Amino acid sequence: MSMPSFYVNPEQLVREKAEYARRNIARGRPLIAVSYGDGILLCAENTSATLHKISEIYDRIAFAGIGLYSEFDMLRRAGVQHADVKGYQFSREDVDARALATLYAQYLYQVFTHEVKPYEIEILVAEVGGSLADDRMYRLQYDGIIIDEHDFAVLGGEAEAITQRMKETYEAGMPLDAALRAATAALGGPDRTIAAGDLEVAVLHRNEDRRAFRRVEDAETAELLGSNDAGGEGEGEQQ
C-alpha cells in the first residue's frame, strides 16, 4: 500500500518557520548595545546570575543573544573556538567581528532553510574600535540576515519601540553613566523602571590594548544609574 504524498508550498513553509521563530524570540527579554565615548555598552534585562546573555568572544569582540539560551550559547562557544584557532594560526589582529558575523549568518541560514525547526534566537556581534567611527555592531536574525548597526542596536521583542525611545536620548560620545541610563530607560519604557539587580551589563572598553571586555557588577550598575537597588532574582531558560 503506497503512502499518500503531501505538497507544502515553499513560500508558506518559509512564512510559517519565520513566524514561529519571531513569536518565540519575542518572548525573551530585550537587549541593547550602545556606542559611547569610551567603548561599547551592552545592557540586557536579565535577573539570572549564571545564564549570561552577554559574553566575551575575543580581545575586543563581544557576543550577545536573546531567545532560547541553549541555542545562542552553543553559537557563542563555537565563536570562541573559531576565534582562538584563527588567532593562533594567523594573528590576533586577523580575528574581527565582520568575519565572525558572516560565519554565524551562514550557519543560521543553513538551519533555517534545511531544518524543520529554525533557531529561536537573535544575536549580536560587537567589536570596539579606536574611535566611535570604528565601532562595529552586527545584528543577526534567526534566518541568517546580517544588519550592520550604527550608534546602537536593539534585539528582542518591542525592538521598534525601544529603538524609537533610544533615538530620542542617544548622543554620540556620551559618557558611560548617561549611556546606561538611556539604555535602561529605553528598555523599560515610560511606565516601568528596571532595577540594577535586574540588569546584565558589560562594556568593551576602547582604551584597553587587548582584553577590552569587562562585566559591570550590580553595585557599580546601581551607582551609574544613581540607584541603591542592586537586588534581583533568577529566571528560566528563555532569555
Chart the SSEs and their pairings.
Layout lengths: L9 H16 L5 E6 L2 E7 L8 E5 L2 E7 L1 H21 L7 H18 L6 E7 L8 E5 L5 E4 L2 E4 L3 H11 L6 H13 L10 E7 L7 E4 L1 H8 L14
Antiparallel strand pairs: 1-2, 1-8, 2-9, 3-4, 4-5, 5-6, 6-7, 9-10
Helix pairs in contact: 4-5
Give a summary of the structure in a few sentences:
The chain is α+β, with helices and mostly antiparallel strands. 36% of the residues lie in helices and 23% in strands.
Q: What is the CATH class name?
A: Alpha Beta
Low-confidence stretches: 230-236
CATH superfamily: Aminohydrolase, N-terminal nucleophile (Ntn) domain
**What is the quaternary state of this protein?**
single chain
Domain tally: 1
Write structural notes for this entry:
With about 240 residues, the protein is α+β, with helices and mostly antiparallel strands. It has one domain: Aminohydrolase, N-terminal nucleophile (Ntn) domain (Glutamine Phosphoribosylpyrophosphate, subunit 1, domain 1, 4-Layer Sandwich). The protein is about 35% helix and about 25% strand. It contains six helices and ten strands. The chain has helices spanning about 10-25, 70-90, 95-115, 160-170, 175-190, 220-225; strands at about 30-35, 40-45, 55-60, 60-65, 120-125, 135-140, 145-150, 150-155, 200-205, 215. The chain has a five-stranded antiparallel sheet. The chain has a five-stranded antiparallel sheet with strand order 3-4-5-6-7. Helix 4 (about 160-170) runs antiparallel to helix 5 (about 175-190). The longest helix is centred in the N-terminal third of the chain and has 21 residues, at about 70-90. It is globular.
